[in-house]
Amino acid sequence: MQPKKLKRTFERDKQTNMVEVFNLWTLILSLIVVKLYHWIYQWNNPKCKGKLPPGSMGFPIIGKTFEFMKPHDAIQLPTFVKEKVHRYGPVFRTSLFGAKVIISTDSGLNIEMAKTNHMPGMPKSLARLFGENNLFVQSKDSHKHVRSVTTQLLGSQGLKLRMMQDVDILTLTHMEVGARNGGLDVKETVSKILIECLAKKVMGEMEPEAAKELTLCWSHFPKGWFRISWNIPGNGVYRMMKAKKQMINILKETVLKKRASGEELGEFFKTLLGEMEGGEEKISVESAIEFIFIFFVIANEATPSVLAATVKLISDNPKVMQELKREHERIVRDKSEKEKKTGLTWEDYKSMTFTQMVINESLRITSTAPTVLRIIDHEFQFGEYTIPAGWIFMGFPTVHFNPEKYDDPLAFNPWRWKEKDLTAIVSKTYIPFGAGSRLCLGADFAKLIMASFIHHLCRYRWSMKTETTVLRRFILTFPGGSDIQISQDTEVENSAG
Q1: Which of 145, 240, 293, 409 allows an S-S link to 224, with CB 3.0 to 4.6 Å?
Q2: CA angle, 65 as apex, 62 and 70 as ends, to 5°?
Q3: Position with higher pLDDT, 297 vs 424
Q4: How do strand 99-104 and strand 392-395 relate by DSSP bridges?
């Protein structure tokens, strides 16, 4: 065969091969596109036996997470929720944090879901943080046991007999330090009060170095809550998991050292294990430590943020501040010299009528995150819609902003609570602590911390910068901090002089 003919044959075969390769890749890419389209279609149209609530699932995996997590004014419901309610109605579906979610602003449905579903709803980042075997999501018996033990510590009787004095002393101490320094960060200070108070009751006396290390770990948690669940070095979930490991090790080492030396553990820890009843341990030490860890994390996130927001609301309302000062001056003035040395009593706390009105109003107006979070454990019919099992349910307390229930609902008006039951922590129109079997066990403790802090703060001349902003990115955030300025001279001392 001639060279030219061979060359033409070679080129023709080469072109044929290229066409075949091109066709093969075209087929592969077409299959990928079809598969991708099918996946996206299935993602946006989840299967359900009935009719799903309307809504949009967004992009696969990411869903609507970034839109949902945009910072917004803490005294307003999220823009995301308001826009979707306007478009779809009070109940809609979406995808957040890689999970399928039903969001509800219907108060009746929220209460029903809280009562009939018992598994807490959370994205994978939180599920990973809490651990698969944590007592919050184990059997009903273990959950019932830890609720019973926690109630012994944080119920009304426990607070009166075990916590009142410690809360008062710690608050007074930190407030005096702040006054000497000319100011303090409310959120940071309340966090210290909480951890010191709980650590003593739960773990007993801790070595100073261990207590210091434990306190340092908290800084990693608030920024890591409710994120996309990828555990990648450097991101929020990774830092959370690293801090969790450090904290678990500190707690476990403390427990083992105390047991080896015969030193007393805290009463709460012993009760949790079942040792106070003289029988066998009801749960393992490891499970108890996991529970204590979660207990600390939850307590440390919610109350300091809400109290910092409350101080901001008080600072922005001079009439409220004036009325609070009058109430707390009266409490101090009516004490004898002997009684003043004993500090704040349970009777003093129960007499803080206006303070409780302020706390209730603050909790109402700052509850702009879902207060009912559940995994839907059984299919549920709501009108024409089917709410499927296995999805996460988020119930937003929009009833707090219903003008038919609360006159001028966006206004901070503590007087609206006058002559109402100030001890109630849940009702059909008030659910800042959730409802049902997952009603927050720390509700009364949170209110005690808030009242004690307000009491000692109102004995000083203080102010918060007008430019201080309170935003919500699911959790409350303070971009510029929550600092207040305090004068060492107290109002009570000046008026007495």
Answers
A1: 240
A2: 145
A3: 424
A4: parallel
Three-state secondary structure along 304-347?
HHHHHHHHHHHHCCHHHHHHHHHHHHHHHHCCCHHHHHHCCCHH
Chain segment 481-491, per-residue pLDDT in tens: 999 999 876 54
Q: What angle do CA 299, 192, 293 make, to 5 degrees?
A: 40
Using CA of residue 349, residue 343, residue 447, residue 408, what is the dihedral sign? positive
CA-to-CA dists, residue 234 to 180, 237, 307, 474, angstroms:
38, 8, 30, 21
Largest CA distance in the chain: 122
Residue-wise pLDDT for 255-264, tens only, equals 888 778 777 7
Torsion of CA 80, 86, 90, 93, to 10 degrees: -50
CA triple 115-92-58, angle to 5 deg: 130
Q: Which residue has the tokens 């075209």?
A: 26
Angle (nearest 5°) at CA 110 between 109 and 113: 80
DSSP 162: I
Judged by DSSP in three states, 92 sits in strand
pTM of the model: 0.85
Please answer whether residues 187 and 449 qualify as being in contact, where contact means their C-beta atoms are separated by less than 8 angstroms: no
Residue with tokens 């929220």: 110
Give the closest residue to 448 by CA, choosing from 367, 353, 357, 349: 349
Average pLDDT over residues 409-428: 91
d(CA 258, CA 154): 24
Q: Which long-range contacts (CB under 8 A, 24 or more apart) does 240-243 make?
A: 240/125, 240/129, 241/128, 241/129, 243/217, 243/218
∠ at Cα 102 (97, 103), nearest 5°? 95
In sequence order, what are the residues at sequence separation of 6 or more whose Cβ sits closer than 8 angstroms to the Cβ of residue 11?
none
In sign, the C-alpha dihedral spanning 219, 225, 227, 229 is positive
Q: What are phi and psi of 474, to 5 degrees?
A: 70, -55
Q: How far apart are CA 431 and CA 434, in angstroms?
A: 5
Report the DSSP pairing between strands 385-387 and 183-185: unpaired
**How many other C-beta atoms can be found within 10 angstroms of the C-beta atom of residue 15?**
10
Place of tokens 């066998």: 280
Total residues belonging to the chain = 497
492 pLDDT band (50/70/90 cuts)? very low
Q: How far is CA 76 from the centre of its chain?
A: 17
Q: What is the DSSP annotation of 98-110?
A: TEEEEEE--HHHH
Tokens 């033409």 correspond to: 8
* Residues 319-325: contacts with CB under 8 Å, at least 24 apart: 320/358, 320/412, 320/414, 321/458, 323/354, 323/414, 324/354, 324/355, 324/358, 324/454, 324/458, 325/458, 325/491
Find the helix or strand (DSSP H, E) in which 488 lies. Answer: strand 483-490
